[in-house]
Amino acid sequence: MKILVVEDDPDLRRQLVSGLSGRAYTVEDCGDGNEALYQGSEFEYDLAIVDIGLPGMSGLDVIRGWRKAQRQFPILILTARGDWQDKVEGLEAGADDYLVKPFHMEELNARVNALLRRAAGHASPQMTFGLITLDTVARAVFVNGSEIKLTSYEYRTLEYLMVHAGKTISKAELTEHLYHQDYDRDSNVLEVFVRRLRQKLDPDQTLHPIMTVRGLGYRFALEASE
Q1: Domains and CATH numbers, the chain
Q2: Which pick of 47, 70, 167, 190 has the fewest CB atoms within 10 Å?
Q3: Are 143 and 209 in contact (CB under 8 A)?
Q4: What does pTM read for this prediction?
Q5: Residues 151-197: tens digit of each pLDDT
Q6: CB burial class (10 A; 0-12, 13-18, 19+) of residue 216?
Protein backbone atom coordinates (compact mmCIF):
# COMPACT_ATOMS: atom_id res chain seq x y z
CA MET A 1 0.00 0.00 0.00
CA LYS A 2 1.34 3.44 -0.94
CA ILE A 3 0.74 6.48 1.28
CA LEU A 4 1.35 10.16 0.55
CA VAL A 5 2.33 12.27 3.58
CA VAL A 6 1.80 16.02 3.18
CA GLU A 7 3.28 17.92 6.13
CA ASP A 8 5.36 21.12 6.14
CA ASP A 9 7.04 20.50 9.51
CA PRO A 10 10.20 18.57 8.50
CA ASP A 11 10.61 16.86 11.87
CA LEU A 12 7.03 15.62 11.99
CA ARG A 13 7.20 14.63 8.33
CA ARG A 14 10.29 12.50 9.00
CA GLN A 15 8.55 10.95 12.01
CA LEU A 16 5.49 10.07 9.94
CA VAL A 17 7.53 8.64 7.07
CA SER A 18 9.66 6.58 9.44
CA GLY A 19 6.71 5.28 11.45
CA LEU A 20 4.64 4.31 8.42
CA SER A 21 7.59 2.80 6.56
CA GLY A 22 8.20 0.66 9.63
CA ARG A 23 4.69 -0.72 9.17
CA ALA A 24 5.59 -1.98 5.67
CA TYR A 25 3.88 0.84 3.79
CA THR A 26 5.47 2.52 0.80
CA VAL A 27 5.60 6.20 1.77
CA GLU A 28 6.17 9.33 -0.30
CA ASP A 29 6.13 12.82 1.15
CA CYS A 30 6.09 16.52 0.39
CA GLY A 31 5.76 19.75 2.37
CA ASP A 32 4.05 22.11 -0.05
CA GLY A 33 0.40 22.33 -1.03
CA ASN A 34 0.99 22.90 -4.73
CA GLU A 35 3.34 19.93 -4.94
CA ALA A 36 0.84 17.81 -3.01
CA LEU A 37 -1.96 18.69 -5.42
CA TYR A 38 0.22 17.64 -8.35
CA GLN A 39 1.43 14.38 -6.79
CA GLY A 40 -2.00 13.26 -5.64
CA SER A 41 -3.54 14.13 -9.02
CA GLU A 42 -0.90 12.48 -11.19
CA PHE A 43 0.22 9.41 -9.24
CA GLU A 44 -1.51 6.44 -7.61
CA TYR A 45 -1.88 6.31 -3.83
CA ASP A 46 -3.93 4.16 -1.48
CA LEU A 47 -4.22 6.89 1.17
CA ALA A 48 -3.06 10.43 1.91
CA ILE A 49 -2.27 12.12 5.23
CA VAL A 50 -2.61 15.89 4.89
CA ASP A 51 -1.80 18.74 7.25
CA ILE A 52 -4.34 21.58 6.96
CA GLY A 53 -1.80 24.40 7.31
CA LEU A 54 0.51 24.17 4.28
CA PRO A 55 2.57 26.72 2.34
CA GLY A 56 1.57 27.42 -1.25
CA MET A 57 -1.96 26.02 -0.93
CA SER A 58 -3.95 25.03 2.13
CA GLY A 59 -4.53 21.38 2.87
CA LEU A 60 -8.27 21.94 2.46
CA ASP A 61 -7.76 23.31 -1.06
CA VAL A 62 -5.48 20.39 -1.88
CA ILE A 63 -8.21 17.96 -0.83
CA ARG A 64 -10.85 19.85 -2.80
CA GLY A 65 -8.56 19.75 -5.86
CA TRP A 66 -8.05 15.99 -5.55
CA ARG A 67 -11.74 15.32 -5.20
CA LYS A 68 -12.50 17.59 -8.15
CA ALA A 69 -10.00 15.52 -10.15
CA GLN A 70 -11.93 12.37 -9.08
CA ARG A 71 -9.16 11.04 -6.86
CA GLN A 72 -10.99 8.73 -4.45
CA PHE A 73 -8.27 7.47 -2.08
CA PRO A 74 -9.01 7.92 1.66
CA ILE A 75 -7.68 11.12 3.24
CA LEU A 76 -6.73 11.64 6.88
CA ILE A 77 -6.27 15.29 7.85
CA LEU A 78 -3.89 16.50 10.54
CA THR A 79 -4.74 19.70 12.36
CA ALA A 80 -3.47 21.59 15.36
CA ARG A 81 -6.90 23.11 15.72
CA GLY A 82 -9.32 21.59 18.19
CA ASP A 83 -12.36 23.59 17.14
CA TRP A 84 -15.17 21.43 15.78
CA GLN A 85 -15.84 23.81 12.88
CA ASP A 86 -12.37 23.15 11.48
CA LYS A 87 -12.92 19.42 11.64
CA VAL A 88 -16.27 19.75 9.88
CA GLU A 89 -14.72 21.95 7.18
CA GLY A 90 -12.06 19.31 6.55
CA LEU A 91 -14.59 16.49 6.29
CA GLU A 92 -16.81 18.56 4.01
CA ALA A 93 -13.81 19.27 1.76
CA GLY A 94 -13.58 15.53 1.13
CA ALA A 95 -11.46 14.12 3.96
CA ASP A 96 -12.50 10.82 5.56
CA ASP A 97 -11.09 11.26 9.07
CA TYR A 98 -9.06 13.69 11.16
CA LEU A 99 -6.41 13.60 13.86
CA VAL A 100 -5.60 16.55 16.14
CA LYS A 101 -1.95 17.31 16.92
CA PRO A 102 -0.18 16.26 19.03
CA PHE A 103 -0.99 12.59 18.56
CA HIS A 104 0.54 9.19 19.25
CA MET A 105 1.90 7.27 16.27
CA GLU A 106 -0.07 4.24 17.42
CA GLU A 107 -3.34 6.13 16.99
CA LEU A 108 -2.36 7.35 13.54
CA ASN A 109 -1.44 3.80 12.49
CA ALA A 110 -4.80 2.53 13.76
CA ARG A 111 -6.71 5.20 11.83
CA VAL A 112 -4.70 4.55 8.66
CA ASN A 113 -5.36 0.83 8.95
CA ALA A 114 -9.09 1.39 9.48
CA LEU A 115 -9.37 3.76 6.50
CA LEU A 116 -7.56 1.35 4.20
CA ARG A 117 -9.77 -1.54 5.33
CA ARG A 118 -12.97 0.42 4.84
CA ALA A 119 -11.88 1.63 1.42
CA ALA A 120 -11.37 -2.00 0.39
CA GLY A 121 -14.69 -3.12 1.92
CA HIS A 122 -13.20 -5.03 4.87
CA ALA A 123 -14.61 -4.36 8.35
CA SER A 124 -12.24 -6.65 10.27
CA PRO A 125 -8.46 -6.17 10.57
CA GLN A 126 -8.12 -9.85 9.78
CA MET A 127 -8.87 -11.13 6.28
CA THR A 128 -9.21 -14.90 5.91
CA PHE A 129 -9.33 -16.64 2.55
CA GLY A 130 -9.35 -20.41 2.76
CA LEU A 131 -6.44 -21.39 5.00
CA ILE A 132 -4.69 -18.03 4.61
CA THR A 133 -5.19 -15.17 7.09
CA LEU A 134 -3.70 -11.70 6.78
CA ASP A 135 -3.68 -9.56 9.93
CA THR A 136 -3.39 -5.91 8.91
CA VAL A 137 -2.75 -4.76 12.49
CA ALA A 138 0.03 -7.22 13.28
CA ARG A 139 1.23 -7.02 9.64
CA ALA A 140 1.46 -10.80 9.72
CA VAL A 141 0.32 -13.70 7.53
CA PHE A 142 -0.79 -17.14 8.72
CA VAL A 143 -1.35 -20.35 6.79
CA ASN A 144 -3.50 -22.91 8.59
CA GLY A 145 -2.83 -21.09 11.86
CA SER A 146 0.97 -20.94 11.55
CA GLU A 147 2.71 -17.65 10.84
CA ILE A 148 4.92 -17.50 7.78
CA LYS A 149 7.82 -15.09 7.49
CA LEU A 150 7.66 -12.60 4.65
CA THR A 151 9.95 -9.79 3.61
CA SER A 152 8.53 -6.28 3.56
CA TYR A 153 8.01 -6.34 -0.22
CA GLU A 154 6.51 -9.83 -0.13
CA TYR A 155 4.03 -8.66 2.51
CA ARG A 156 3.13 -5.56 0.52
CA THR A 157 2.58 -7.61 -2.61
CA LEU A 158 0.36 -10.13 -0.83
CA GLU A 159 -1.58 -7.47 1.08
CA TYR A 160 -2.47 -5.60 -2.11
CA LEU A 161 -3.57 -8.78 -3.87
CA MET A 162 -5.63 -9.97 -0.87
CA VAL A 163 -7.27 -6.59 -0.30
CA HIS A 164 -8.36 -6.76 -3.94
CA ALA A 165 -9.09 -10.50 -3.92
CA GLY A 166 -10.93 -11.70 -7.01
CA LYS A 167 -9.78 -8.75 -9.09
CA THR A 168 -7.09 -9.10 -11.74
CA ILE A 169 -4.27 -6.69 -10.88
CA SER A 170 -1.94 -5.69 -13.68
CA LYS A 171 1.80 -5.68 -13.08
CA ALA A 172 1.78 -1.92 -13.72
CA GLU A 173 -0.84 -1.31 -11.02
CA LEU A 174 0.90 -3.56 -8.55
CA THR A 175 4.29 -1.92 -9.01
CA GLU A 176 2.67 1.53 -8.82
CA HIS A 177 1.42 0.73 -5.33
CA LEU A 178 4.57 -1.06 -4.15
CA TYR A 179 7.36 1.28 -5.16
CA HIS A 180 8.29 4.94 -4.92
CA GLN A 181 7.92 7.09 -8.02
CA ASP A 182 11.65 7.25 -8.71
CA TYR A 183 12.28 3.55 -8.18
CA ASP A 184 13.71 1.65 -11.14
CA ARG A 185 10.79 -0.70 -11.63
CA ASP A 186 11.59 -4.07 -13.10
CA SER A 187 8.70 -6.45 -13.74
CA ASN A 188 11.09 -9.37 -13.34
CA VAL A 189 11.55 -8.39 -9.68
CA LEU A 190 7.79 -8.50 -9.17
CA GLU A 191 7.70 -11.96 -10.70
CA VAL A 192 10.31 -13.05 -8.15
CA PHE A 193 8.16 -11.74 -5.28
CA VAL A 194 5.10 -13.58 -6.58
CA ARG A 195 7.05 -16.79 -7.11
CA ARG A 196 8.43 -16.65 -3.54
CA LEU A 197 4.97 -15.90 -2.16
CA ARG A 198 3.54 -18.94 -3.90
CA GLN A 199 6.29 -21.13 -2.43
CA LYS A 200 5.72 -19.82 1.10
CA LEU A 201 1.92 -19.82 1.00
CA ASP A 202 1.48 -23.06 -0.89
CA PRO A 203 4.58 -25.28 -0.66
CA ASP A 204 2.54 -28.40 -1.47
CA GLN A 205 0.78 -26.69 -4.39
CA THR A 206 -2.68 -27.49 -3.04
CA LEU A 207 -4.12 -24.01 -2.45
CA HIS A 208 -3.17 -22.12 -5.63
CA PRO A 209 -3.89 -18.70 -4.05
CA ILE A 210 -2.21 -16.45 -6.63
CA MET A 211 -3.16 -17.00 -10.24
CA THR A 212 -1.37 -15.60 -13.26
CA VAL A 213 -3.85 -14.14 -15.73
CA ARG A 214 -1.88 -14.38 -18.94
CA GLY A 215 -1.22 -11.01 -20.51
CA LEU A 216 -3.11 -9.16 -17.74
CA GLY A 217 -1.46 -9.71 -14.37
CA TYR A 218 -2.24 -11.57 -11.14
CA ARG A 219 -5.35 -12.43 -9.14
CA PHE A 220 -5.72 -13.66 -5.58
CA ALA A 221 -8.17 -16.44 -6.28
CA LEU A 222 -9.24 -17.87 -2.91
CA GLU A 223 -12.71 -17.02 -1.58
CA ALA A 224 -13.21 -15.37 1.80
CA SER A 225 -13.96 -17.74 4.68
CA GLU A 226 -16.87 -17.22 7.04
Answers
A1: 2-119 (3.40.50.2300), 126-220 (1.10.10.10)
A2: 70
A3: no
A4: 0.83
A5: 988 999 999 999 999 999 999 899 888 877 655 556 678 888 899 99
A6: exposed
